[in-house]
């Protein structure tokens, strides 16, 4: 239990009502606030949390953190504020992480944190880190898009990076469950919204930056700046930055904490040099200082060598020797749901992958096309998300695949046909400028998504390769506010099995 008057607050903060009131939790959403919590009524893009004041305060919650606008809303809409203590600050989001850390006692936690940011590769690298840490003997925690785990117990995740009160509550639960190390994804939304405040990462890693989220960030510069905030003393003690593009080089320069760089380009003079060995997965990481780690990526896709090297370099920065890391990486097996997941091994090879950016599509299809087999892709784009990435996604698919089937992802509240039209526009532009691999008659638009997958399986035939892109681990499709059950992995397996059954009876069409 902590008294409001004992919280470290900004000098401009004031407490209306009883300042000695005690709180033993923090929450920020009316739907999850519980008695004993300091409930943060936050201003948002859609609504001010204080609008839910009457309902929340009627449930026995008697401590609120808000801003002046929130205080006014509460005064207007709640009959009786007598007996309610209200902490008023200029920017409640900006203090929420620090306050949550104090209330949950996670500000001086013994939990060691590894943080990951970047456009693509956070989830995968966090899973690899977690698997390595487990092999190294740690009791681990994991926080990210696909799942949250606490000492081996798996829970579902609501978003990539939880809101600050939920995050610190999780840290406290991890501490109580004996977790000593946690690997965590830190999205740019989270950094911009102070969701990771009050957490200090021992080592943070940067994977890459490419186009995404330009609905939330006005420019790539703003997106970069949000991610760069992780590499400051407020958030991290040290960092590892992958330098495979100009953004990586800039991140290493912008960092105001000690960072080491990892790259496969010796010309960039990285601290750690990644040298690919024969075969699709093996590599040597030559560490600054002379040691090296020989390892293999546990997942297919050339980019997963980079993700694995990043995980190893982060653990090395966290104090684990090259020798122990090489032993931990030996024969490592990692399955990341919906990331390069081979749902059918051959005839045809069918892969489900969460590629929902132009760069991810380009890289994944580039890798799959190395096999020489005809390559089919099913692709769409999410509604209410960066619309400017859609033409580039269509173009990437057209440049890399022999058959492109444009379909729906999660249209959310947007018109699905309009989303598909933008992808088609990009694919057609690639055909017009001569950079496409797909023939015009092999560029198709097909819905619903299940039909698109079934048709793609027909095109892949017995000898092709198929990528079902964009939804990865997701088990639902969001259409106009409703989430309908849909799992790419299940649908793809079913379509492959159905084709095989028809082939067995000689009823397969070409
Ligand atoms: C752009 C963005 O991230 N917005 C998040 C933000 O919304 P907001 O500030 O506009 O808030 P709002 O919806 O207006 O609500 C204001 C306040 O009222 C509260 N409220 C709202 C409704 C209600 O019934 N009761 C209630 O208390 C909300 O909890 C909030 O505190 O705060 C809300 C409350 O936590 C989030 O739900 C919302 O996430 C939206 C739904 C979202 O889709 N976010 C995605 C894009 C996101 O965060 N993605 C990244 C991963 C990106 C990646 O790397 O791929 C992530 O970390 O998950
Ligand atoms: N290092 C990488 N470089 C480029 N693409 C990658 C890399 N790692 C993964 N990808 C691609 O990006 C997709 C998403 O990967 P992952 O889920 O690991 O990233 P993420 O950063 O967690 O994404 P999100 O924030 O959207 O959940 C993968 O399915 C793969 O297609
Ligand atoms: N974390 C990403 C996931 C996108 C996945 C794709 N299936 C979509 O719905 O756009 C986002 O929220 O933008």
Automatic annotation (TrEMBL):
Mur ligase C-terminal domain ranges (all copies): 338-472
Enzyme class per UniProt: ligase
GO MF term (any one): ATP binding
GO biological process terms on file: cell division; cell wall organization; peptidoglycan biosynthetic process; regulation of cell shape
Entries under SUPFAM superfamilies matching the protein: MurD-like peptide ligases, catalytic domain (SSF53623), MurD-like peptide ligases, peptide-binding domain (SSF53244), MurE/MurF N-terminal domain (SSF63418)
Metabolic or biological pathway, per its Swiss-Prot or TrEMBL entry: Cell wall biogenesis; peptidoglycan biosynthesis
Changes after translation: Carboxylation is probably crucial for Mg(2+) binding and, consequently, for the gamma-phosphate positioning of ATP.
N6-carboxylysine modification, residue list: 227
Domain Mur ligase central: 117-314
Reactions catalysed: UDP-N-acetyl-alpha-D-muramoyl-L-alanyl-D-glutamate + meso-2,6-diaminopimelate + ATP = UDP-N-acetyl-alpha-D-muramoyl-L-alanyl-gamma-D-glutamyl-meso-2,6-diaminopimelate + ADP + phosphate + H(+)
UniProtKB keywords: ATP-binding, Cell cycle, Cell division, Cell shape, Cell wall biogenesis/degradation, Cytoplasm, Ligase, Magnesium, Nucleotide-binding, Peptidoglycan synthesis
Cellular compartment(s): Cytoplasm
Coiled coil: none
Chief place of localization: cytoplasm
Motif (Meso-diaminopimelate recognition motif): 409-412
Database matches in PANTHER family: MUR LIGASE FAMILY MEMBER (PTHR23135), UDP-N-ACETYLMURAMOYL-L-ALANYL-D-GLUTAMATE--2,6-DIAMINOPIMELATE LIGASE MURE HOMOLOG, CHLOROPLASTIC (PTHR23135:SF4)
Function comment: Catalyzes the addition of meso-diaminopimelic acid to the nucleotide precursor UDP-N-acetylmuramoyl-L-alanyl-D-glutamate (UMAG) in the biosynthesis of bacterial cell-wall peptidoglycan.
Protein name: UDP-N-acetylmuramoyl-L-alanyl-D-glutamate--2,6-diaminopimelate ligase
């Amino acid at each position: 239990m902590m008294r409001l008057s004992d919280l470290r607050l900004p000098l401009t903060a004031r407490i209306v009502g009883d300042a000695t009131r005690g709180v033993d939790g923090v929450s920020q959403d009316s739907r999850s606030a519980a008695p004993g919590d300091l409930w943060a009524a936050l201003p948002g893009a859609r609504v001010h949390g204080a609008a839910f004041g009457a309902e929340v305060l009627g449930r026995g919650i008697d401590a609120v953190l808000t801003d002046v606008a929130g205080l006014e809303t509460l005064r207007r809409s709640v009959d009786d504020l007598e007996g309610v203590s209200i902490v008023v600050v200029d920017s409640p989001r900006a203090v929420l992480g620090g306050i949550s850390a104090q209330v949950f006692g996670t500000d001086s936690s013994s939990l060691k944190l590894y943080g990951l940011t970047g456009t693509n590769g956070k989830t995968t690298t966090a899973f690899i880190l977690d698997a390595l840490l487990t092999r190294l003997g740690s009791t681990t925690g994991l926080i990210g898009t696909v799942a949250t785990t606490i000492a081996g117990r798996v829970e579902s995740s609501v978003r990539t990076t939880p809101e600050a009160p939920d995050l610190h509550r999780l840290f406290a639960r991890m501490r109580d469950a004996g977790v000593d190390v946690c690997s965590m994804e830190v999205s740019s939304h989270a950094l911009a919204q102070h969701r990771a405040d009050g957490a200090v990462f021992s080592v943070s890693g940067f994977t890459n930056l490419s186009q995404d989220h330009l609905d939330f960030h006005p420019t790539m510069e703003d997106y970069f700046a949000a991610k760069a905030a992780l590499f400051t003393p407020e958030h991290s003690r040290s960092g590892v930055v992958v330098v495979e593009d100009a953004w990586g080089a800039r991140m290493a320069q912008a960092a105001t904490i000690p960072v080491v760089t990892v790259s496969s380009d010796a010309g960039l003079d990285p601290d750690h040099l990644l040298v690919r060995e024969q075969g699709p997965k093996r590599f040597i990481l030559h560490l600054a200082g002379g040691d090296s780690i020989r390892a293999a990526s546990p997942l297919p896709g050339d980019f997963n060598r980079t993700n694995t090297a990043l995980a190893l370099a982060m653990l090395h920065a966290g104090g684990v020797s090259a020798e122990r890391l090489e032993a931990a990486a030996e024969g490592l097996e990692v399955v990341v749901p919906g990331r390069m997941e081979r749902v059918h091994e051959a005839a045809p090879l069918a892969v489900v992958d969460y590629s929902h950016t132009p760069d991810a599509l380009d890289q994944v299809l580039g890798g799959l096309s190395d096999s020489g087999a005809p390559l089919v892709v099913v692709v769409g784009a999410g509604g209410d998300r960066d619309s400017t990435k859609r033409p580039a996604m269509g173009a990437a698919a057209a440049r890399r695949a022999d058959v492109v089937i444009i379909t729906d992802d999660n249209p959310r509240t947007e018109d699905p046909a309009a989303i598909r039209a933008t992808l088609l526009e990009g694919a057609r532009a690639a055909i017009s400028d001569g950079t496409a691999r797909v023939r015009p008659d092999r560029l198709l638009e097909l819905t619903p998504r299940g039909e698109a997958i079934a048709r793609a399986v027909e095109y892949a035939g017995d000898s092709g390769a198929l990528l079902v892109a964009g939804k990865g681990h997701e088990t639902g499709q969001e259409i106009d506010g409703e989430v309908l059950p849909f799992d790419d992995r299940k649908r793809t397996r079913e379509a492959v099995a159905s084709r095989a059954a028809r082939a067995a009876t000689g009823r397969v069409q070409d």
